[in-house]
Design brief:
Blueprint (H helix, E strand, L loop, with lengths): L2 H11 L2 H7 L4 H5 L11 E9 L5 E8 L11 E8 L2 E8 L11 E6 L5 H9 L5 E4 L16 E6 L3 H12 L7 E7 L8 H9 L4 E7 L9 H7 L7 E6 L1 H13 L6 E5 L17 E4 L4 E4 L5 H7 L17 E11 L11 E4 L3 E9 L2
Parallel strand pairs: 7-8, 7-10, 8-9, 10-11, 12-16
Antiparallel strand pairs: 1-2, 1-6, 2-5, 3-4, 3-6, 12-13, 14-15, 14-16
InterPro entries: 2Fe-2S_ferredoxin-like_sf, 2Fe-2S_ferredoxin-type, Beta-grasp_dom_sf, Cbr1-like_FAD-bd_dom, FAD-bd_FR_type, FNR_nucleotide-bd, MRET, OxRdtase_FAD/NAD-bd
Organism: Hydrocarboniphaga daqingensis
Pfam families: FAD_binding_6 (PF00970), Fer2 (PF00111), NAD_binding_1 (PF00175)
Length: 364
């Protein structure tokens, strides 16, 4: 459709008049019956291909609608699905080369024990399914034209943003030398195993070592790095994977004085240092927009809001993506990662990693 026509249509659909006419549901509720990909403002995507590379992962190729603004290799997006009548969203790294083949993007999702969204997608993802998407986010990205040698380290499903980086670099005429360590339980658990081997075989200055931690290999060791790069301080290092792997690279970089050259992306929450005595939990939660009250039980404000029947926006649920940020109008909250207390005045907080200390009022 002509861009000028689309622009005029957007102005109409997002106008105050249309908002008033479609309240309280919003215009998208009336567009969906005609085509679930239609939206006045929201990014949505239709699944075009599904592949299950390993026993516990699913790879989906998704074509976003016209609201998608593209991504940089290494970024993630929130995927939203409806499960038992409730919209749920989680953050997943993009695995495709940036900006994407013909507009399509790829995600690989590893099924997590107890993971609502990952289990749902692994079991039910199919061609034609429409997903909600956010715009791409994240700072775990390559520079525009890297010239310094790169060390990429991935563990398990942490391969997904690294795969996006490798595919993007592979499509360029020239790129910096790349060394990679990939830790995975067994050969059968290696996501993108065959493609990785083919990628590195095409580049004389690229070198790959895959370590099977449950089949004769060991977990991370500084010796693994030293076998690939002569000087850690002379390379830019990117690591994504389990907390123990990331923490080990952080410690090694600090020991060798090159912390500034390390970038990392966690897909699990850091270990909480907050200690909360359940006997001290008290107070009441007031959700002013929904006019609901709840007795504080000490859990995160996100968990308690959902238990009260609210549906606040949420993504990673670990304080990384900031999609759950909302306005606290009064009360003190504790950061569940650090134990730090907030002020008692108005401020924006991340409700997935905040717990009430006494009475708290939220603009939800």
């Amino acid at each position: 459709m002509n861009p000028s026509i689309l622009s005029n249509l957007d102005r109409v659909l997002t106008s105050p008049l249309v908002a008033a006419l479609t309240a309280p549901y919003g215009v998208d509720r009336f567009l969906e019956p005609f085509n679930p990909m239609w939206s006045a403002t929201q990014v949505r995507g239709r699944i075009e291909a599904v592949q299950r590379q390993t026993r516990d992962s699913v790879t989906i190729t998704v074509r976003p609608n016209r609201h998608w603004q593209g991504f940089v290799a290494g970024q993630y997006a929130r995927i939203e699905v409806e499960i038992d009548g409730v919209r749920r969203s989680r953050c997943y790294s993009l695995a495709s080369a940036a900006p994407g083949r013909d507009g399509a993007v790829e995600f690989t999702i590893k099924q997590q024990d107890g993971g609502l969204v990952s289990t749902f997608l692994y079991a039910y993802a199919q061609v034609g399914m429409v997903l909600g998407l956010s715009q791409a986010e994240g700072e775990f990205v390559l520079p525009e034209s890297p010239t310094t040698p790169l060390l990429l380290v991935a563990g398990g499903s942490g391969i997904t943003p690294v795969m996006s980086m490798l595919r993007t670099l592979d499509g360029r005429v020239s790129s910096a030398p790349v060394s990679m360590l990939y830790y995975v339980r067994t050969a059968a658990d290696a996501i993108y195993g065959d493609e990785l081997a083919a990628l590195f075989a095409r580049h004389a200055s690229w070198q790959l070592r895959v370590i099977h931690t449950r089949d004769g290999g060991s977990h991370f060791s500084p010796a693994h790095v030293d076998a690939l790069v002569a000087d850690l301080a002379a390379v830019d290092t990117y690591v994504c994977g389990p907390a123990a792997l990331i923490d080990a690279l952080i410690a090694l970089s600090a020991e060798r004085g090159c912390e500034a050259r390390l970038r990392h992306e966690r897909f699990t929450a850091p270990v909480s240092t907050a200690v909360i005595d359940p006997n001290t939990v008290s107070g009441e939660l007031r959700f002013i927009r929904s006019e609901r009250l709840a007795t504080n039980d000490g859990r995160s404000l996100l968990d308690q809001a959902e238990a009260a029947g609210l549906r606040p926006e949420a993504g990673c649920r670990m304080g990384i993506c900031h999609s759950c940020t909302c306005r606290k109008t009064s009360g003190v909250v504790r950061d569940l990662r650090s134990g730090k207390l907030s002020s008692d005045g108005e401020e924006d907080i991340q409700i997935c990693v905040s717990a009430a200390v006494g009475d708290v009022t939220l603009d939800l």
